Amino acid sequence: MKTPDAQDFLDLDGQLDDAERDIAATVRAFAARRLAPHVADWFDAGTIPAPRELAQEFGALGVFGMHLSGYGCADAGDVAYGLACRELEAVDSGLRSFVSVQGSLAMGAIHRFGSEEQKQEWLPGMATGSALGCFGLTEPDSGSDPGSMRTRARRDGSDWVLDGTKMWITNGSVADVAVIWARTDSGVRGFVVPTSSPGFTAREIPRKLSLRASITASITLDGVRLPATAALPGAEGLGAALSCLNEARFGIVWGVVGAARSCFLAALDYAKTREQFGRPIGAFQLTQRKLADMVLDVNHAGMTALRIGRLKESGACHHSHISLGKLGNVRAAQRVASAARSIHGANGITLDYPVLRHMLNLETVATYEGTEEVHALSLGAALTGHSAFR
């Protein structure tokens, strides 16, 4: 009997159908050719050069809104989307975030809550990457508690006028359209805001030490006047915004499996080739124990992602399933990245190897789209029937 393949020890890809395997292989090949050779330089520079050019390549690949139907979207299924996230985050979390913010948050909100006119105006261009979107929910003083947002939308005749600030907005300074969430007299609502609107300003956030191969901005809305048709007709109440976040979190559940796999395979290769005391360090018991723990985490996370993906496709996925996946899989990926860094020794702190870059990125991934504490409390509420938030 053949020894299991280290890249997929439990043959989880054997549980995929042919179309899903083809999508995973296509995205992996694109990532290896187009992204992996450059990502260390992008991380070092703290940005993505020519993001619009890259967006059109992602559009041609078909990954923007690939789980959505119609309007130029691929309708490829939730597991296929998860696999694309896995292969992109195997290169870098910032690149997966670039895709998931566009497809799950901005496009997903318009697809689910928008009018037919809004969908026709924005979704086809966003699917091809000729138009970029962002999602404005988080504020400087409102992270885990989005219900305390201060951004407001008031009626002025038939128009809406928006004032407020949004923070940590991926793609914010390069987007053509922003989905902005604001408090109104009748509750929280979502709005489709062209970024060319007078009073809309986006500034890139500098000096990040994590998720550096990405574009992150703050957004200021200073009397942004919009027609009545800018409101997303189906997006009333905070639950609408949170349902969009759940879609993005699903991408994280899968994405961090890729980050963990990348760290594990780098450590395994290093352990086989790095010699100390006259033998490869992979021949020592302590290193083998680290590698064994790592392959456990990678494969357990992969099983979790696949199971949640199948639940989602069957319509049986509760938001607490996503919380379990994000909480558990991010923790597993962080353990793998840390162990991989230790196996690499001093070399592990350089950009010549991917492990510390992944470690730093995972610090952000553990925080955004719901902190570890928020997801733990979500699980607690599902288990006990009592919410600890308010």
Mean pLDDT: 96
Label the CATH architecture of the largest domain.
Up-down Bundle
User: How would you characterize the largest beta sheet?
Assistant: 4 strands, mixed
- Total DSSP E strands: 12
Assign the structural class, choosing from mainly alpha, mainly beta, alpha/beta, alpha+beta, or little secondary structure. Answer: alpha+beta
Distance linking N and C termini:
55 Å
Highest CATH level, the class of the largest domain = Mainly Alpha
Order of helices and strands: HHHEEHHHEEEEEEEEHEEHHHH
Specify Rg, calculated over alpha carbons: 21 Å
List the domain count as a whole number: 3
Helix content: 40-55%
Q: Flag low-confidence runs.
A: none
CATH superfamily of the largest domain: Butyryl-CoA Dehydrogenase, subunit A, domain 3
Tally the helices: 11
Pathway: Amino-acid metabolism; tryptophan metabolism; Amino-acid metabolism; lysine degradation
Domain Acyl-CoA oxidase/dehydrogenase middle: 134-224
Enzyme class: oxidoreductase
Cofactor: FAD
Protein architecture, described:
This protein folds into three domains: 6-128, Butyryl-Coa Dehydrogenase, subunit A, domain 1 (Orthogonal Bundle), CATH 1.10.540.10; 133-236, Butyryl-CoA Dehydrogenase, subunit A, domain 2; 240-384, Butyryl-CoA Dehydrogenase, subunit A, domain 3 (Up-down Bundle), CATH 1.20.140. The protein is 51% helix and 17% strand. The chain has helices at 18-35, 39-45, 51-61, 78-89, 93-113, 116-128, 238-273, 285-313, 319-344, 355-365, 372-384, and strands at 69-70, 73-74, 133-136, 152-156, 159-170, 177-184, 187-194, 200-204, 216-226, 231-236, 275-276, 279-280. The protein has a four-stranded mixed beta sheet with strand order 3-6-7-10. The mean pLDDT is 96.
